[in-house]
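Lab meeting prep.
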Amino acid sequence: MTPKHTKEEKLKAFGDFLDVLDTLRVQCPWDRKQTNASLRPNTIEEVYELCDALIAEDNANIRKELGDVLLHVAFYARIGEEKGEFDIADVCRSLTEKLKFRHPHIYGDVKADSADDVLQNWEKIKQKEKDGNKTVLSGVPSALPALIKANRIQEKARNVGFDWEKREDVWAKVKEELSEVETEMKAEEGDKSKERLESEFGDLLFSVINAARLYGVDPENALERTNRKFISRFNHIERRLREMGKSFDSVTLEEMDALWNEAKTGSESLNSADV
């Protein structure tokens, strides 16, 4: 495939972008007042917007949102430069050095014939770095959403060999955790019982995430697709009720179920307009 732009054109575009950022930082009242702390909430929002575009496979929006995320990366580097700590060149060089160090099968003499071979060496390599993780799981950010964090924890444990020998074995664990939830649900109500039930639900969810990982399914993407599917079908119910001059208060659950099934069997699309 022929590249759309040459390396020189890419570098020129990146340089032009940095020039604009430098100008805005000096001349724009809003850009001038930004700090790491003030930008952080916007950065989180931009990353989520990129994730939306990625899951929708909307290339036009992917390009747009990548630009927004890149702006934030460069903005933080500009703030670091103003503090005399680092600049975008330091960021790029640090990343380049890290990538080379973590890929000795490309830039060294280590043998790795598959993606699994690479992942199995990943944690050991990171712990050898100067500022590397002190433990296998210490590299998992504490602020990650719980579902994503559970998946990352399991991936990191797998990379050092702590995993099921056969993926089919995980279903016994899922059934065991489901049984423990059912047992706890039958227990007497109370604060401690509620805590135990929450704990058992957590164990069940963790085991289901584990099963998804073992079968090559990203649980975050899977759940988000289901979220979007539910929203689309629920929106269908709401539209149909409006068309019939009715509201949720005026129909039975059976009538709503019928409209739900209508959405399932109909041609409802899961595009961005539905959500």
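Slide two material, second protein:
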Amino acid sequence: MIKIELGLLNRQAWLLLLSLLLTLVISSCTPPPKSIEIKQPSRHEQQLEEQNRQLSGEVDRLQQELLGKQEEIKKLVLARQNSTREVVRTKAKLRSHSSKAGTVANIAEVKAVLKVAAERSMDDQLQQVVLEAEQVVAMSVDALTQGDVENAFNLSSRAQQLIQPIRALEVKNFLSNKSDIVFVAPLAMKVLTTCNVRTGPGTKNDVRFILREGTYIKALAYVKNWIQVESDQKGKGWIYYRLLEIVP
């Protein structure tokens, strides 16, 4: 009995030993795991990487600067456009004011000439001229009242052309008496309505400048219905007497 048990033990020992040998054989046949090598960049590669970083930063800076310059350019363009529009508006206003003042002066002068013509005896042809001029100047006044300065100015200029025959009559009367009468002392006067100041006595003479309603001037001399005046700002000229009044 004891011998049988010893035989079993020896057999189990051999089996265990055989198992250990097989394990060792298998382990020796399996290749060892490879170690992972980390390659360090070379000095040249490090320098290139640093240069790339610097260039990337410079590009970002230049892009930001470019955006800032573009914004400044937009502001300058907008400012220039606004300035241009303001200049255009200012010029338009000046032209409008100039045209309006010229229109008012033309109307006042035509009305004064027509009023004098109505007090004189004229032939049928001149009377027809007076009627047509009165209609045109009335249309000019209506257009000016409605704010249509350009049309009002054109109509007032047309009225000036229509009264040319009456102006010719005034010149003829003026030539018959060229002498002017000088005031002993300058006389203070005020402009009743915006009017033309001419280079000589008579509507045939050129307009030197325009005086606005309420302007104070000095009267120096007169020839029939024309008074020589002097403005401190604009100088001397002639105005039809009905467009002035004496300052009390």
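Talking points for slide two:
Residues 89-169 form a domain with the Substrate Binding Domain Of Dnak; Chain:A; Domain 2 fold (CATH 1.20.1270).
Residues 199 and 205 are 6 Å apart (CA to CA).
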